[in-house]
Design brief:
Largest sheet: none
Structural class: mainly alpha
Distance between the termini: 18 Å
Number of helices: 3
Number of domains: 1
Length: 75
């Protein structure tokens, strides 16, 4: 059981770090534009694409978004 708690804590830390890096990437792209040498990925475009694809799925997309938010906000 202790291993499961450690694994869960590690995954939560990884997800929190990933969300922080995503937010930083969005801010950097807003400040410096999409085509920078130090971060050549269009983060805002990818976020928009994911949002559109979830929206195109209708109720299934909303349900999956609701589940993801519920899992992320769970303490």
């Amino acid at each position: 059981m202790e291993y499961l708690n450690k694994a869960t804590a590690a995954i939560k830390g990884l997800v929190e770090t990933s969300v922080a890096l995503l937010a930083l990437a969005v801010v950097l792209q807003v400040l410096f534009g999409a085509n920078t040498a130090f971060f050549p990925v269009d983060v805002v475009g990818n976020v928009i694409h994911v949002t559109k694809s979830l929206g195109a799925e209708g109720l299934v997309g909303l349900a999956s978004l609701w589940v993801l938010l519920a899992l992320f906000n769970r303490k």
